[in-house]
Each structure stands twice: as C-alpha cells, then as structure tokens.
Specification:
Elements (H helix, E strand, L loop, with lengths): L9 E5 L3 H12 L3 E6 L3 H9 L5 E2 L3 H6 L3 E4 L3 H10 L7 E4 L10 H5 L3 E7 L6 H7 L4 E5 L4 H11 L3 E4 L5 H8 L4 H15 L5 H22 L1 H4 L3 H4 L2 H14 L1 H21 L4 H15 L2
Parallel strand pairs: 1-2, 1-4, 2-3, 4-5, 5-6, 7-8
Antiparallel strand pairs: 6-7
Helix pairs in contact: 1-6, 9-10, 13-14, 13-15, 14-15
Bound molecules: NADP nicotinamide-adenine-dinucleotide phosphate (NAP).
NADP nicotinamide-adenine-dinucleotide phosphate binds next to helix 1, helix 4 and strand 6.
C-alpha cells in the first residue's frame, strides 16, 4: 500500500452495504481519501459515494481496485473469497476484509498477486450505517495483518478514534464466537425475558422499555467496576432462597426456560465468588441446586 511522503492511501470499497457505508463515511469524516466504491448494484455504491466529496461510484469492482492503494472488501462473509478470486490485484496495494469470523486466507488470491492482506473488524453493530457511524468513535477495531500493513491499519483505526486490538492468525472463529456474548446474544436474552413477561401480560415493547435502562446500568457498572465487582443481583449475593423461588417458577414454565437459566446462573457463581459475596461452601450449595434442576 502506498503511503509515501505522508500522502494518504487512495481507499476504495468493494461492497457498499452497512459496513461499507459506515466505515467509508467514518474514514472520509476523519480526513482519509475514500475515492471509489462498487457493489453488486450501482445504486448501493452511489449511496455510499453520495456522502463523500470526491468519491466515485463505479460499475465495476475491478475499476475500484485499479484506482486504489487500499481496498476494503466489505461484501457478505460467504462472498469474500469469490470476490477476491475474481479480481486482479497488484503488489503495491493492500486488500482488507472486515469479517470477524473469516480467515484472512480468504484473500489469498490477492496475496498470491503480491498484495498485502489483512483483517479489520469493527466491534460494532452495523444494523444501520448512520447509527454505526455515530458509534464508531470509542469502539474497538480488531486487526490481523503483518508489518508494515499492521501499523498502517492501526493508524487508520486511530484516525477513526477507535481503539485497536491485534488478533493472532488462526483465532478468528473463536474470537468472533465470543463477541456474540456482548452483541446478538444480549438481544436473544432480552427476547427470553420478553417471553417470560408476556406470560403475565406485559407486551414486548413495554418489556424492552423497562429492561433497557437496566441493561445500560449493567454496562455502566461493568465499565466502572469490572466484571466481578460490577455484578449485582442474586448471584452476586448468593441468595439461595431467591434462587429456589426462581427454579420452582421456571420449572413450571418448562425445561427450556429452566435449563437456560441454570446454565447462566452456574457461570455467574465464579464471579460472585471473585466479588467476595460468599465462600466456596455456599457456592457449592448453589451449584448443587442448579445441577439438580438441570437434570430434571
Ligand atoms: N453488520 C455488522 O454488524 C458487521 C459488523 C462487523 C463486521 N461485519 C462484516 O462486514 C462485512 C459486510 O457486512 P454488512 O453487514 O455490511 O453486509 P451487507 O449490509 O449485506 O452489505 C454487503 C454488501 O456487499 C454487496 N455485495 C454482495 N455480493 C457482492 C459481490 N459479489 N460483489 C460486490 N458487492 C457485493 C451487497 O451489494 P448490493 O447492496 O449492491 O446488493 C451489499 O451492499 C461482512 O464481512 C461482515 O461480517 C459486519
């Protein structure tokens, strides 16, 4: 990737969906030279380019490659390898994908042509590019690349006012699976709560309105105090009486609700212990009740 005499690289996007737009707009806002975009449909590339002075929407991905030093392949995960294989790359450029789970090796056709390759995964939900753009500063971008591309991508992330995390090769699937616990699975758990409240007449919208401030408070507590000291509730204190009430009620609802609760509760006990809320003897008494419920 050319970055001579402090001239910023010419950045292009292949794939103008939610991440392509969010990142391209963020990079342009931070002064980077986002000059070209393509997509499966020209309309998507035009939407991306419309908000960036000097950026062109091009009909062909190859044209984007040919006029860029740094190309972000922001297509769906399953299309990355095919897109990489369909284009002609140069050795004086770099090619990046933004997938959390896909190995950088998906870009091997570009590497075979001598291009530098890497991963640049923003730990942010891009359900809506506008919301993601607003949320970019402060979020972490996980980077997998070798020098000299690595520090260049770190600089790029810093220009977006993002933190950076380096990912060793071969860890992407594990890394990405774990990230779900702070993103999609939180929504899944809210949905679980909504189902339980619905059984006594509270609708989903009211559930979300009621639980979102609790969720924000939880995030703020973790931010302030860390995982163990930030924990609150039954498993921070070790209230066995409350635990038993929960188990009895969830058993009436059914094994699915009961088992999910027990799995989560069992994983909360080490944090309660670390917090100093109870001792190992008390923890074992809680575990014993939860394991028994899991076998029911
Ligand atoms: N969404 C997230 O929260 C998130 C977060 C971090 C990382 N990522 C990663 O970012 C990447 C893009 O995800 P996304 O959520 O932005 O997906 P998306 O919204 O579905 O956008 C993908 C874009 O790629 C275009 N496209 C599809 N096939 C193509 C092809 N063969 N050639 C050129 N363009 C093609 C689509 O074109 P048209 O619009 O023209 O049809 C679409 O605009 C993925 O690797 C994903 O894992 C996503």
């Amino acid at each position: 990737m050319q970055q001579q005499n402090n001239i910023l690289p010419r950045i292009g996007f292949v794939g103008s969906g939610r991440v392509g737009k969010g990142l391209a707009w963020g990079m342009a806002r931070s002064g980077q030279r986002v000059l070209a975009a393509a997509s499966r449909s020209l309309a998507s590339a035009e939407q991306l380019a419309a908000r960036i002075a000097g950026c062109r929407a091009l009909a062909s991905a190859q044209d984007v490659v040919d006029c860029s030093d740094l190309v972000f392949v922001t297509v769906p995960d399953d299309a990355i390898a095919a897109v990489a294989a369909s284009l002609k790359w140069r050795e004086d450029m770099a090619v990046i994908h933004c997938s959390g789970a896909t190995e950088v090796a998906a870009l091997s056709p570009a590497a075979a042509a001598g291009a530098k390759v890497g991963g640049f995964h923003p730990l942010q939900l891009f359900a809506d590019p506008e919301v993601a753009l607003a949320g970019l500063p402060g979020c972490t971008i996980t980077i997998e690349a070798e020098a000299p591309l690595l520090p260049q991508l770190e600089q790029l992330a810093q220009s977006l006012r993002c933190r950076t995390l380096r990912l060793p090769a071969g860890c992407r699937a594990r890394y990405h699976a774990a990230a779900h616990y702070a993103a999609g699975f939180v929504i899944t758990l809210l949905n679980e709560a909504a189902g339980l409240w619905q059984s006594f007449g509270v609708d989903r919208e009211d559930t979300i309105r009621a639980l979102l401030p609790l969720l924000r408070g939880t995030a703020a507590s973790v931010e302030r105090s860390g995982l163990a000291q930030g924990l609150a509730g039954t498993y921070s204190r070790g209230d066995i009486g409350t635990l038993e009430k929960h188990l009895a009620e969830l058993a009436r609802i059914g094994p699915d609700a009961l088992h999910l609760y027990c799995e989560l509760a069992l994983r909360s006990i080490p944090l309660g212990l670390e917090r100093g809320g109870y001792d190992e003897h008390h923890a074992e008494a809680m575990r014993e009740r939860l394991r028994r419920a899991l076998q029911s």
